Amino acid sequence: MAKKAFKAVFKKADSSTFEAIQRTLKEREVAVYIHIPFCRSICLYCPYVRYLVHDPKVILKYVDALEAEIRLYGNLLGDLDLAIVDIHAGGGTPSLLSGEQFERILGTLAECFDAEPRISIEANPEDLTDESRVFDLVDHGVTEVSLGVQSFNPQMLRRLGRRHSVEDSIRSIENLRQAGVDYINIDMMYMIPGQTIDDWERDLEIAAEQDVDEITCYPTLITEYCPGYRLVKKRNISQPNKRAFKKMVYATEDLLSSRGFEPVEIYGYSRKHGWKYATVNYEMEGPLLGIGCGAMGFTGGCEYVNTCSVPEYIRSAFDGRIPIAGARLVSVEERAIRYTVCRLFVCRDLKFEDFRLKFKEDFRDVMSRSGFGRFLALLRLLRRIQGYPEGIKLTRKGLFTAHLICWAFVLNVPCRICEEFMKTAWPTEVTIP
Q1: How many angstroms separate the Cα of 176 from the Cα of each of 142, 213, 268?
Q2: pTM
Q3: Distances in Å between the alpha carbon of 329 and those of 16, 23, 78, 338?
Q4: Which residues share a beta bridge with 59?
Q5: Which terminal residue of the chain, N or C, has fewer Cβ atoms less than 10 Å from its own Cβ?
Q6: For residue 136, what are the CA distances in angstroms to 144, 176, 199, 359?
């Protein structure tokens, strides 16, 4: 479905790319995503830009390059009076960096933009079992942490190729809470090859008992370029089927809702009303500045991908060139569809007034000019979505439909972007999917 509905051509960046970034950043409030592509080991099903690193000097040099890239954007966008409202570090493994290194990054952002010295990071449990290490991160600006627990079942952790133990996860959660982190999210994974519905429900029960603010649950993605793909084929282990997928989706909804977690999107369930860790809104809607090797940015009218080669990224930043490997212009119609998909199928609810404020036009008028409007009409007839005076919302019946839509999109768009741009540092042209 995503292959038919979405097609994009990224072309090699030139001077017109940087002019387009300037021209299409029309909103003052902007988010920043920082990609840390380093890992101590590669998880079997990770589809993102990641590389093994054993030399701390490589990380030191990379942080220098991050600061250089931020300053390049400061020079490019300095006249726009931008305010950075959210800073998020993903990977890879951001928790490999020290508190002092995060403080340097935050200081450079504050030097170049209106930005507060606070950052949300993804972390691996084995990196946070040392209490002093957690306090170091918090003391230097880390205020929110998304911990990659993935499972409280040792067998499932082995199947995912994870380094940490169940005990590491529990100790890390305790350390984060003791250190005073503002918000703690834990990521959980289901649809793991060989996993049963009972396995998943038990994982959810244990997750709900933890002292965390949010639980985010993702289905396992298996791409042809991830290390676990051949392993699955060789051992003839398959993911749970579509029927099991559906049962797992609704088991997640029912169990976490009954334990005091409010659904804040189709993946995330929060104990704190109005708060969620997930950054999918910025990725889909923009504006988002992508910083780092393999980072993706979206201004609202221009989408770009940084080179996925660490040596080339560092060289480009040090040479004073913004390290964009490919970019494309995004039409207002496409952005409106992306916004609709994000609000309706991920965040569960689209408000007409929010749409009007974003696009200066009525939602129904925009959709009437698009084939996507007919798709929404069909979903409404099938009772997957439901209209109400202020907007449209996802129904319980539509929850699994939304998961299928998002699964197809992620596999065929961001995962394909990673796959293609990891093949060569500076491609001339890349077509997605």
Answers
A1: 10, 12, 20
A2: 0.95
A3: 11, 11, 22, 14
A4: none
A5: N
A6: 14, 11, 36, 42
